[in-house]
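thread: overnight batch results

M.L. [08:02]
morning all. the overnight job finished for the chain we discussed friday. pasting input first so we're all looking at the same thing
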Amino acid sequence: MRNGEFVVKENISETTQNQVVEHMLGQKLEEQFPKKNTRIGTTVLEVKGLSDRSKIKDLHLHVKSGEIVGVAGLVGAGKTELCKALFGSEKLTGGEVLLNGVKLTLNSPYDAVKNGMALVPEERRKEGILVLESVESNLTAANLGSFTNVFSFLNRKKEKETAKQLISRLGIKTPSEETKVQNLSGGNQQKVAIGKWLVSEADVYIFDEPTKGVDVGAKKDIFELITELASRGKSIIYASSELSEIMGITDRVYILYDGQSIKELETNRTNEEELLFYSTGGR
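M.L. [08:03]
and the structure it wrote out:
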Protein backbone atom coordinates (compact mmCIF):
# COMPACT_ATOMS: atom_id res chain seq x y z
CA MET A 1 0.00 0.00 0.00
CA ARG A 2 0.98 3.60 -0.59
CA ASN A 3 -1.01 6.71 0.28
CA GLY A 4 -4.05 4.63 1.26
CA GLU A 5 -4.20 2.59 -1.94
CA PHE A 6 -3.03 -0.83 -3.12
CA VAL A 7 -0.36 -0.14 -5.73
CA VAL A 8 0.80 -3.65 -6.64
CA LYS A 9 0.05 -7.32 -6.04
CA GLU A 10 2.80 -9.91 -6.59
CA ASN A 11 3.76 -13.41 -5.59
CA ILE A 12 6.59 -13.57 -3.05
CA SER A 13 8.54 -15.90 -5.36
CA GLU A 14 8.43 -13.32 -8.14
CA THR A 15 9.72 -10.25 -6.29
CA THR A 16 12.64 -9.06 -4.17
CA GLN A 17 12.99 -7.00 -1.01
CA ASN A 18 14.30 -4.03 -3.01
CA GLN A 19 11.32 -4.16 -5.37
CA VAL A 20 8.90 -4.19 -2.44
CA VAL A 21 10.63 -1.13 -0.98
CA GLU A 22 10.50 0.65 -4.35
CA HIS A 23 6.73 0.06 -4.56
CA MET A 24 6.32 1.42 -1.03
CA LEU A 25 8.34 4.54 -1.85
CA GLY A 26 6.91 5.07 -5.32
CA GLN A 27 10.38 5.63 -6.73
CA LYS A 28 13.58 3.79 -7.56
CA LEU A 29 15.51 2.65 -4.51
CA GLU A 30 18.78 4.54 -4.45
CA GLU A 31 21.69 4.18 -2.05
CA GLN A 32 20.22 4.26 1.45
CA PHE A 33 23.12 6.06 3.07
CA PRO A 34 24.19 9.36 1.47
CA LYS A 35 27.81 9.85 0.52
CA LYS A 36 29.72 11.97 3.01
CA ASN A 37 31.97 14.75 1.80
CA THR A 38 32.70 16.39 5.11
CA ARG A 39 35.84 18.03 6.40
CA ILE A 40 36.45 16.79 9.95
CA GLY A 41 37.89 19.49 12.19
CA THR A 42 39.08 19.78 15.76
CA THR A 43 37.65 18.12 18.86
CA VAL A 44 34.42 19.76 20.03
CA LEU A 45 33.08 17.37 22.68
CA GLU A 46 35.32 15.38 25.01
CA VAL A 47 34.15 12.96 27.70
CA LYS A 48 36.63 11.81 30.35
CA GLY A 49 35.94 9.02 32.84
CA LEU A 50 32.18 9.55 32.83
CA SER A 51 30.11 7.55 35.34
CA ASP A 52 26.49 7.76 36.48
CA ARG A 53 24.36 6.20 39.20
CA SER A 54 23.00 3.36 37.09
CA LYS A 55 24.96 2.05 34.11
CA ILE A 56 27.85 4.15 32.80
CA LYS A 57 31.31 3.38 34.19
CA ASP A 58 34.51 5.34 33.51
CA LEU A 59 33.60 6.09 29.89
CA HIS A 60 35.82 8.06 27.52
CA LEU A 61 35.00 9.44 24.07
CA HIS A 62 35.48 12.47 21.86
CA VAL A 63 33.74 13.97 18.83
CA LYS A 64 35.18 16.40 16.30
CA SER A 65 33.39 19.02 14.23
CA GLY A 66 31.86 17.54 11.10
CA GLU A 67 32.21 14.03 12.50
CA ILE A 68 29.51 11.39 13.00
CA VAL A 69 30.54 9.13 15.87
CA GLY A 70 28.62 5.94 16.46
CA VAL A 71 27.83 4.42 19.85
CA ALA A 72 27.06 0.76 19.23
CA GLY A 73 25.95 -2.00 21.54
CA LEU A 74 23.20 -4.46 22.28
CA VAL A 75 20.00 -3.49 24.10
CA GLY A 76 20.94 -2.74 27.71
CA ALA A 77 24.57 -1.89 26.94
CA GLY A 78 24.14 1.67 28.21
CA LYS A 79 23.64 3.68 25.01
CA THR A 80 20.51 5.47 26.21
CA GLU A 81 22.01 6.10 29.66
CA LEU A 82 25.06 7.69 28.02
CA CYS A 83 22.92 9.94 25.83
CA LYS A 84 20.86 11.10 28.81
CA ALA A 85 23.97 11.62 30.94
CA LEU A 86 25.49 13.87 28.27
CA PHE A 87 22.22 15.81 28.09
CA GLY A 88 21.99 16.39 31.84
CA SER A 89 19.09 13.98 32.39
CA GLU A 90 21.09 11.53 34.50
CA LYS A 91 22.98 12.34 37.68
CA LEU A 92 26.73 12.01 37.14
CA THR A 93 28.90 10.45 39.82
CA GLY A 94 32.28 10.92 38.17
CA GLY A 95 34.21 12.24 35.20
CA GLU A 96 33.80 15.40 33.19
CA VAL A 97 32.35 16.68 29.92
CA LEU A 98 34.22 19.36 27.98
CA LEU A 99 32.82 21.41 25.10
CA ASN A 100 35.45 23.26 23.08
CA GLY A 101 37.84 22.73 25.97
CA VAL A 102 35.52 24.20 28.60
CA LYS A 103 34.25 21.94 31.39
CA LEU A 104 30.44 21.81 31.53
CA THR A 105 28.19 21.58 34.57
CA LEU A 106 25.26 19.42 33.47
CA ASN A 107 22.68 19.37 36.26
CA SER A 108 19.70 19.38 33.90
CA PRO A 109 18.78 19.41 30.18
CA TYR A 110 18.52 23.19 30.48
CA ASP A 111 22.28 23.32 31.09
CA ALA A 112 22.92 21.15 28.03
CA VAL A 113 20.69 23.23 25.73
CA LYS A 114 22.23 26.45 27.03
CA ASN A 115 25.67 25.12 26.07
CA GLY A 116 24.65 24.14 22.53
CA MET A 117 23.67 20.48 22.88
CA ALA A 118 20.59 18.73 21.49
CA LEU A 119 19.11 15.27 22.12
CA VAL A 120 16.70 13.29 19.95
CA PRO A 121 15.68 10.55 22.45
CA GLU A 122 14.80 6.94 21.77
CA GLU A 123 11.27 7.25 23.21
CA ARG A 124 10.11 10.14 21.07
CA ARG A 125 6.43 10.02 22.10
CA LYS A 126 7.34 10.20 25.79
CA GLU A 127 10.38 12.45 25.70
CA GLY A 128 10.93 13.92 22.24
CA ILE A 129 7.65 15.51 21.19
CA LEU A 130 4.46 17.01 22.61
CA VAL A 131 1.97 14.61 21.05
CA LEU A 132 -1.13 16.66 21.88
CA GLU A 133 0.32 19.89 20.51
CA SER A 134 0.53 21.08 16.90
CA VAL A 135 3.43 20.51 14.54
CA GLU A 136 4.07 24.25 14.67
CA SER A 137 4.27 24.34 18.47
CA ASN A 138 6.63 21.36 18.53
CA LEU A 139 9.00 22.75 15.91
CA THR A 140 9.49 26.00 17.84
CA ALA A 141 9.33 24.61 21.40
CA ALA A 142 13.10 24.21 21.89
CA ASN A 143 13.85 27.88 21.17
CA LEU A 144 10.79 29.94 22.09
CA GLY A 145 12.95 32.95 22.92
CA SER A 146 13.50 33.47 19.19
CA PHE A 147 9.76 33.95 18.69
CA THR A 148 8.97 36.43 21.46
CA ASN A 149 9.11 40.22 21.45
CA VAL A 150 10.55 42.55 24.07
CA PHE A 151 7.45 42.04 26.24
CA SER A 152 7.75 38.22 25.99
CA PHE A 153 4.64 37.91 23.82
CA LEU A 154 4.76 35.14 21.23
CA ASN A 155 5.09 36.29 17.63
CA ARG A 156 2.67 33.83 16.04
CA LYS A 157 3.38 35.02 12.51
CA LYS A 158 7.12 34.38 12.82
CA GLU A 159 6.44 31.04 14.52
CA LYS A 160 4.12 29.95 11.70
CA GLU A 161 6.56 31.02 8.96
CA THR A 162 9.43 29.13 10.59
CA ALA A 163 7.29 26.02 11.02
CA LYS A 164 6.29 26.09 7.33
CA GLN A 165 9.93 26.42 6.29
CA LEU A 166 10.96 23.44 8.45
CA ILE A 167 8.05 21.32 7.22
CA SER A 168 9.15 21.94 3.64
CA ARG A 169 12.86 21.48 4.37
CA LEU A 170 12.39 18.20 6.27
CA GLY A 171 9.67 16.81 4.02
CA ILE A 172 7.22 16.39 6.91
CA LYS A 173 3.96 14.99 5.58
CA THR A 174 1.20 16.82 7.42
CA PRO A 175 -2.09 18.45 6.33
CA SER A 176 -0.94 21.71 7.90
CA GLU A 177 1.37 23.14 10.53
CA GLU A 178 -1.59 23.18 12.93
CA THR A 179 -2.13 19.38 12.81
CA LYS A 180 -1.53 17.62 16.13
CA VAL A 181 1.64 15.57 16.14
CA GLN A 182 -0.19 12.48 17.41
CA ASN A 183 -1.90 12.25 14.01
CA LEU A 184 1.37 11.92 12.08
CA SER A 185 3.15 8.69 11.14
CA GLY A 186 6.13 7.54 13.19
CA GLY A 187 8.62 8.76 10.62
CA ASN A 188 7.08 12.22 10.44
CA GLN A 189 6.93 12.43 14.24
CA GLN A 190 10.65 11.70 14.29
CA LYS A 191 11.28 14.46 11.75
CA VAL A 192 9.44 16.85 14.07
CA ALA A 193 11.56 15.64 17.01
CA ILE A 194 14.69 16.44 15.00
CA GLY A 195 13.36 19.62 13.41
CA LYS A 196 12.76 21.41 16.70
CA TRP A 197 16.52 21.46 17.32
CA LEU A 198 17.35 22.98 13.94
CA VAL A 199 16.00 26.33 15.12
CA SER A 200 18.41 26.41 18.06
CA GLU A 201 21.47 25.68 15.86
CA ALA A 202 23.14 23.38 18.41
CA ASP A 203 26.83 22.46 18.17
CA VAL A 204 26.42 18.84 19.28
CA TYR A 205 23.51 16.63 18.20
CA ILE A 206 22.88 13.37 20.06
CA PHE A 207 20.68 10.81 18.29
CA ASP A 208 19.47 7.81 20.32
CA GLU A 209 18.03 5.07 18.07
CA PRO A 210 16.72 7.71 15.62
CA THR A 211 15.20 5.21 13.16
CA LYS A 212 13.23 3.20 15.72
CA GLY A 213 9.69 2.63 14.43
CA VAL A 214 10.41 4.54 11.22
CA ASP A 215 9.62 3.35 7.69
CA VAL A 216 12.30 2.88 5.05
CA GLY A 217 11.54 6.13 3.23
CA ALA A 218 11.73 8.26 6.37
CA LYS A 219 14.95 6.49 7.38
CA LYS A 220 16.65 7.69 4.20
CA ASP A 221 15.46 11.25 4.88
CA ILE A 222 16.83 11.09 8.43
CA PHE A 223 20.21 9.80 7.23
CA GLU A 224 20.40 12.67 4.73
CA LEU A 225 19.51 15.22 7.42
CA ILE A 226 22.18 13.91 9.80
CA THR A 227 24.79 13.93 7.04
CA GLU A 228 23.81 17.50 6.18
CA LEU A 229 24.29 18.56 9.80
CA ALA A 230 27.77 17.04 9.77
CA SER A 231 28.59 18.84 6.51
CA ARG A 232 27.78 22.11 8.28
CA GLY A 233 30.39 21.35 10.94
CA LYS A 234 28.07 19.99 13.61
CA SER A 235 29.31 17.19 15.90
CA ILE A 236 27.07 14.12 15.84
CA ILE A 237 26.68 11.20 18.25
CA TYR A 238 24.68 8.38 16.68
CA ALA A 239 23.68 5.69 19.20
CA SER A 240 22.12 2.57 17.70
CA SER A 241 21.88 -1.20 18.04
CA GLU A 242 21.41 -1.39 14.24
CA LEU A 243 24.94 -2.26 13.16
CA SER A 244 24.18 -1.74 9.46
CA GLU A 245 23.29 1.89 10.25
CA ILE A 246 26.45 2.36 12.28
CA MET A 247 28.48 1.04 9.34
CA GLY A 248 26.58 3.13 6.81
CA ILE A 249 26.61 6.58 8.38
CA THR A 250 29.40 6.96 10.96
CA ASP A 251 33.09 7.86 10.73
CA ARG A 252 34.17 6.24 14.00
CA VAL A 253 32.42 4.00 16.50
CA TYR A 254 32.67 3.30 20.20
CA ILE A 255 31.31 -0.07 21.27
CA LEU A 256 29.58 -0.28 24.64
CA TYR A 257 29.25 -3.38 26.75
CA ASP A 258 27.78 -3.31 30.26
CA GLY A 259 28.10 0.46 30.49
CA GLN A 260 31.72 0.63 29.40
CA SER A 261 33.37 1.60 26.13
CA ILE A 262 35.43 -1.48 25.34
CA LYS A 263 36.55 -0.65 21.80
CA GLU A 264 37.02 2.32 19.46
CA LEU A 265 37.13 1.60 15.73
CA GLU A 266 37.28 3.52 12.45
CA THR A 267 34.16 2.55 10.53
CA ASN A 268 35.89 2.15 7.15
CA ARG A 269 38.34 -0.31 8.72
CA THR A 270 35.86 -2.64 10.36
CA ASN A 271 32.72 -4.66 9.56
CA GLU A 272 29.46 -5.73 11.17
CA GLU A 273 30.95 -9.03 12.36
CA GLU A 274 33.67 -7.25 14.34
CA LEU A 275 31.15 -4.81 15.82
CA LEU A 276 28.96 -7.72 16.91
CA PHE A 277 31.97 -9.53 18.40
CA TYR A 278 32.80 -6.63 20.70
CA SER A 279 29.11 -5.84 21.37
CA THR A 280 28.70 -9.29 22.88
CA GLY A 281 31.67 -8.84 25.22
CA GLY A 282 34.50 -10.06 23.01
CA ARG A 283 38.00 -8.92 23.90
